[in-house]
């Protein structure tokens, strides 16, 4: 974290040096506290929203600030809680999902152990659009892949390709006649096996660190057989977004599908 003492990221005010950046969620200016001076309550610098516009850097938007998850983290978010209008920030979420849907699918597999097939991707995209997922109050540009999954309907597990060995064992143990062949999960009988997401939380600790989590569940006839806490890794998503196109073998396949629904 450095401003190089160059305007508009730096400002000299009387005997104080002020350092600025832009909030990745609401695009408002933030002041970096503790960059050159050690703080008593934490050993790391942190960003605090700055309630004034900074020429050449960012214009302060009060409405955006009020809905910013970094400024106002929420621990009891409802999937039905939507923003009243689609602003430039929400449009950026849709654009990011379109351009990086291959990496959204990859992150879905990493965190759930389930491969996102084209059919599953289509169903999730249709639901996201119908529910206006980009307007969800807990959604932002940095958490878009996880919120895309979080807002989805419960989905059947039958026929899914399962990459996670732990989840494979749970399914075979807890589902009558459940089996994994070539990583594909199948079973016989009337059992209803679903996966779904719940309990999205935004948490800000006393040392000003911020994290977001959600719960991933698998149920058998409404009985929980698998549960996992997913912690959002913004830096991982950013690295995936910056991966050269020639190394993204599924980019064209998934981005074309996403643009069909989100464009």
Whole-Å distance between the termini?
35 Å
Strand order of the largest sheet: 1-2-3-4
Largest sheet: 4 strands, antiparallel
Number of strands: 10
Walk me through this protein's architecture.
With 263 residues, this protein is α+β, with helices and mostly antiparallel strands. 30% of the residues lie in helices and 23% in strands. It has eight helices and ten strands. The protein has helices at 62-66, 88-99, 101-112, 118-130, 144-150, 165-174, 234-241, 251-262, and strands at residues 10-13, 16-22, 29-33, 46-49, 155-156, 179-181, 184-186, 193-204, 210-220, 223-231. Strands 1-2-3-4 form a four-stranded antiparallel beta sheet, with no helix packed on it. It has a four-stranded antiparallel beta sheet with strand order 5-8-9-10. It has a two-stranded antiparallel sheet with strand order 6-7. Strand 1 (10-13) and strand 2 (16-22) form a beta hairpin. Helix 3 packs across helix 5 (144-150) and helix 4 packs parallel to helix 8 (251-262). The radius of gyration is 21 Å and the shape is elongated.
